[in-house]
Amino acid sequence: MRLFIYLVVTSLFISCSSKKNKPIKALLITGGCCHNYEYQKKKIQEFTTNKINIEWEVLHEGGDLKDYKSSIYNLENWSSNYDVVVHNECFGKTKDDNFIKKVVDSHLKSDIGIVMLHCAMHTYREGNEGKEAWTKMIGLESKKHDHQDNYIVKNVAPQHPIMKNFPKVWKAPKDELYVVAQEFSSITPLAKAKSFKDSKNHTCIWTNKIEDNNIFGITFGHNNETFESPEFQEVFNRGLLWATGRLK
User: Fold this and answer.
1) How far apart are CA 117 and CA 139, in angstroms?
2) Long-range contacts of 46-54 (CB under 8 A, 24+ apart)
3) Sequence-separated contacts (24+) of 108-111 with Cβ below 8 Å
4) Among the CATH numbers 3.40.50.880, 3.40.630.10, 1.25.40.10, 3.40.1000.70, which is that of 23-141+203-244?
5) How far, in Å, CA of 73 to CA of 29, rounded?
6) What residues form DSSP beta bridges with 117?
């Protein structure tokens, strides 16, 4: 009996250890208007693989369109191939509610980790029921952004593992601050920045949990300089690891 228990415990340990040692399977969905996605997709792969055991697939579609529908959502169980999906697309005028709800459902029916970056928050913003499902998954709603500037970002959750190495105050590279219209009670704000227009503090880094999904979000990421920032790279990497359940 003791031998049986030992073998079971050992097999479980080996199974868990092998899973942690396997590379993270990541999908980057990108494309659309208004951003240098050719540069951004290369930079994301570069600074993550320098620090994380991760393997990337990139879906870059839609050209400069604002109303594109990413093709991967036509595949059944597409999310089963990945541990995490990173959204860095800008399709704000895609408003087919049935399509958008299918996008959300395909995420939430699995326990895939989700990372929301910059214009992913404005993607699908002109939908109705679909937009509501998308913003609920993100954890907050934004319809517009402030002008580009060097915003002062304050770490409001220094004990959170994602924010462990993030400074108390970070002067961000010149970027856009997204104005948050509403926050859902499911989110945990990690950092906020003050708007120069309305003088309000808007959440710009956060986590969300929906069903079995861990969602990490950051609204900065408009200009190339942001992707060069060590602070941005560090918090992005830690957020991605948290979303996959591998942040120690």
Assistant:
1) 13
2) 47/227, 47/233, 47/236, 47/237, 48/236, 48/237, 48/240, 51/233, 51/237, 52/24, 52/237, 52/240, 52/241, 53/21, 53/22, 53/23, 53/24, 54/23, 54/24, 54/26, 54/240
3) 108/137, 108/210, 108/211, 108/213, 109/79, 110/77, 110/79, 110/80, 110/212, 110/213, 111/212, 111/213
4) 3.40.50.880
5) 11
6) 218
Residues across the chain: 248
Domain boundaries, the chain: 23-141+203-244
From first to last of the 248 residues of the chain, give the pLDDT tens digit: 454 444 333 343 333 444 568 999 999 999 999 999 999 999 999 999 999 999 999 999 999 999 999 999 999 899 999 999 999 999 999 999 999 999 999 999 988 999 999 999 999 998 889 899 999 999 999 988 888 999 999 999 999 999 999 999 999 999 999 999 999 999 999 999 999 888 899 999 999 999 889 999 999 999 999 999 999 999 999 999 999 999 97
Indicate the pTM of the whole model.
0.90
CB 246 within 8 A of CB 20: yes
